[in-house]
TrEMBL record:
It is found in: Cell membrane; Cytoplasm, Cytosol. This is Hyccin. Its main location: membrane. Residues 395-416 are annotated as: Disordered. PANTHER family: GH21176P, HYCCIN RELATED. Keywords: Cell membrane, Cytoplasm, Membrane. InterPro entries: Hyccin (IPR018619). It comes from the Eukaryota. It comes from Eucalyptus globulus (Tasmanian blue gum). Belongs to the Hyccin family. Residues 395-404 have a biased composition (Low complexity).
Length: 416
């Protein structure tokens, strides 16, 4: 203290000037070291992997507290988010909770969980949210068109989050699809005489127009918002579990709400659809005969074999093209993807036929063309499977009826 009192201002200022640069250098060096460490931690794949696991475990623990369901086996997994995606008990519990008539409000904890999980920006956690999208969209559209009085702000918040994310990803650009010019030769066709005219330009069709940011789900924009959300679901459909696809097929059949003979217009004489069999009499007319008990037996067998219910779920709703288009793309995958389970293909087949009947009654040409094409593709795929099965059965029967040559007796040489 005495030294500081006796020191002159000039000496103190000179000492401060000599210390300050060193202090600033030390602070800058420390800040650079912290920044370097932070950057290195961000670029480190092990750190990113552990951060992703930590996020997934936190979301699973939060869901466990909401559902009152022990999920310790999922949190202990090496990839907890994907384990949650493929967990059938969790899907059943969350589906039952969302199907409650009082769910979907702004204070619904499950809607908050889905919203926060989607905003976590983790790709695996987003897949979990997408797996519940058919159920959420189906419940929302069925309730809003049957009883618009209850508040469904929780469902709308999740749908808006997905829509806003896609709107940001597209950056105001339309989604285009290339339309081939049929007047030009294809890659597999070389014409004998080439046309001397100028080469035509490839035309492009607008699959989706540029998206406009939305802060609320208005009645005029509802179909577009849900349609964009389902289009995002279609982009991830190869990673979706079977029960998620089944939900959409069941809701699509209920949204069509058309149960008439148009559904079985393209079915064969001996093909059963929903417990009905079309039989052809001597005059060539088809009479629909309902077999007693077949419907209930088939449903019980489906429940026992697959653990799911294939009945339509939801209510009849308006189906503008902006909503119907992504639904048909999803149903096309459910019908024709080779790795889909049989119950998914069956549910998609029923839904496509219901949508065809609805489009035929509403006289929507593009919907009629799309659904009719899917029905024809479904029929050809089923006929190909039947042909392969018949060929295998014929080969097995021919091998069984072919007499086998008598074997020569074996001669054993015994040394004396």
């Amino acid at each position: 203290m005495d030294i500081q009192r006796n020191a002159s201002p000039s000496s103190s200022s000179s000492s401060a000037s000599s210390v300050a640069p060193n202090s600033l250098t030390a602070v800058a060096t420390a800040a650079a070291a912290v920044a370097t460490a932070a950057t290195g931690a961000t670029d480190d794949p092990m750190h990113s992997w552990w951060e992703s696991i930590s996020k997934a475990r936190a979301r699973i623990e939060s869901l466990s507290s909401i559902l009152s369901l022990p999920l310790s086996s999922l949190t202990d997994s090496d990839r907890p988010a994907l384990s949650l995606l493929s967990s059938s008990p969790v899907y059943s519990a969350l589906s039952a909770a969302l199907s409650d008539p009082l769910s979907g409000s702004g204070s619904d904890p499950l809607c908050h969980w889905l919203y926060d999980t989607f905003l976590s920006s983790d790709p695996d956690l987003r897949l979990v949210v997408f797996s519940f999208l058919p159920l959420l969209a189906g419940l929302y559209l069925s309730r809003i068109h049957s009883d618009p009085s209850p508040s469904l702000a929780g469902f709308e918040a999740v749908l808006l989050a997905i829509y806003s994310s896609e709107c940001k990803a597209r950056a105001g650009k339309p989604s285009l699809v290339a339309i081939p010019d049929l007047s030009q030769p294809s890659l597999y066709h070389t014409p004998r005489t080439r046309s001397p005219g100028p080469p035509s330009r490839a035309s492009a069709g607008v699959l989706w127009p540029p998206l406009e940011p939305q802060v609320a789900v208005k009645s005029t924009k509802r179909a577009a918002i849900v349609g964009i959300a389902l289009d995002c679901y279609y982009k991830q459909i190869s990673q979706m579990p079977s029960w998620s696809k089944l939900e959409l097929c069941r809701f699509a059949a209920a949204w069509a709400g058309q149960d008439c003979s148009c559904r079985r217009e393209f079915d064969g004489d001996e093909e059963k659809v929903d417990g009905f069999m079309a039989l052809e009499d001597g005059n060539g007319s088809e009479d629909e005969i309902e077999i007693d008990g077949v419907v209930e037996v088939v449903r019980n067998l489906a429940i026992e074999e697959y653990g799911v219910n294939l009945e339509p779920k939801g209510a009849r709703i308006p189906l503008p093209w902006e909503l119907l288009q992504p639904v048909l793309r999803i149903l096309g995958h459910c019908l024709l993807a080779p790795l889909n389970a049989e119950e998914v293909k069956h549910a998609a087949s029923v839904a496509v036929r219901s949508l065809y009947a609805r489009a035929s009654h509403d006289l929507v040409p593009q919907a009629i063309l799309a659904t009719r094409s899917l029905i024809q593709l479904d029929k050809r795929a089923r006929e190909a499977v039947k042909a392969v099965a018949a060929a295998k059965a014929a080969n097995a029967s021919s091998n069984a009826n072919t007499p086998s040559k008598a074997k020569k007796p074996e001669i054993l040489l015994v040394s004396k």
